[in-house]
Amino acid sequence: MPYFWDGLLVTLQILLYGSLISFSVGLLWALAFRAPTRFVRWPVGAITEFIRNTPLLVQLFFLYFVLPEAGIQFSAFTTGVVAIGLHYSTYTAQVYRAGIEAVPVGQWEAARALSLSYRRTWSAVILPQAIRRVVPALGNYVVAMLKDTPLLAGIGVLELLQRSRLEAAKTFQYTEALTVVGVAFIVISYLASLLLRSLERRLVH
């Protein structure tokens, strides 16, 4: 089943790149929420609320069909990865935000007592503790992203479900193809959860 492996590879690439965008941009959103000026906090809050409360499929269509009219055009794959990454970055931002707020006040005071710089305080004291606390929640969004990868078929990305559906249309054997896809998603989700649990144990100890 070459179509299966090709589709699986595309799905895993979407998941990997989308997760990287989600985690990195989400952290930037979370740091912006703590900016000392409301002229940064308010726009960031409005943008993230808008993205979080807009369906991912609408965002996909906007990026793929509307942006080219403004001279901004990417491939379907790139558009899909960016869309899913940005969409979930607004959720991971709230996870990071909760993790940062959970760091004891004493840690901030200790950093100030040691005369650590602002950057050093964040990189060496606050973020390591915050990220350690939020790994399980971030893992939940990795699984959620995996489940949303079939939406990218709406802009022509041949991920696992779309490739399987097109192949099944040739023989009308939808049951076998869709069953394999369902099992594949379950296996990937389970392996991802095991990996995240292992990472969580390493961070805790």
TrEMBL record:
<comment type="similarity">
    <text>Belongs to the binding-protein-dependent transport system permease family.</text>
</comment>
<keyword id="KW-0813">Transport</keyword>
<feature type="domain" description="ABC transmembrane type-1">
    <location>
        <begin position="8"/>
        <end position="196"/>
    </location>
</feature>
<keyword id="KW-1003">Cell membrane</keyword>
<dbReference type="InterPro" id="IPR035906">
    <property type="entry name" value="MetI-like_sf"/>
</dbReference>
<keyword id="KW-0029">Amino-acid transport</keyword>
<feature type="transmembrane region" description="Helical">
    <location>
        <begin position="177"/>
        <end position="196"/>
    </location>
</feature>
<dbReference type="InterPro" id="IPR043429">
    <property type="entry name" value="ArtM/GltK/GlnP/TcyL/YhdX-like"/>
</dbReference>
<dbReference type="InterPro" id="IPR000515">
    <property type="entry name" value="MetI-like"/>
</dbReference>
<dbReference type="InterPro" id="IPR014341">
    <property type="entry name" value="Ectoine_EhuD"/>
</dbReference>
<keyword id="KW-0472">Membrane</keyword>
<dbReference type="InterPro" id="IPR010065">
    <property type="entry name" value="AA_ABC_transptr_permease_3TM"/>
</dbReference>
<keyword id="KW-1133">Transmembrane helix</keyword>
<protein>
    <submittedName>
        <fullName>Ectoine/hydroxyectoine ABC transporter permease subunit EhuD</fullName>
    </submittedName>
</protein>
<feature type="transmembrane region" description="Helical">
    <location>
        <begin position="61"/>
        <end position="86"/>
    </location>
</feature>
<feature type="transmembrane region" description="Helical">
    <location>
        <begin position="12"/>
        <end position="33"/>
    </location>
</feature>
<keyword id="KW-0812">Transmembrane</keyword>
<dbReference type="Pfam" id="PF00528">
    <property type="entry name" value="BPD_transp_1"/>
</dbReference>
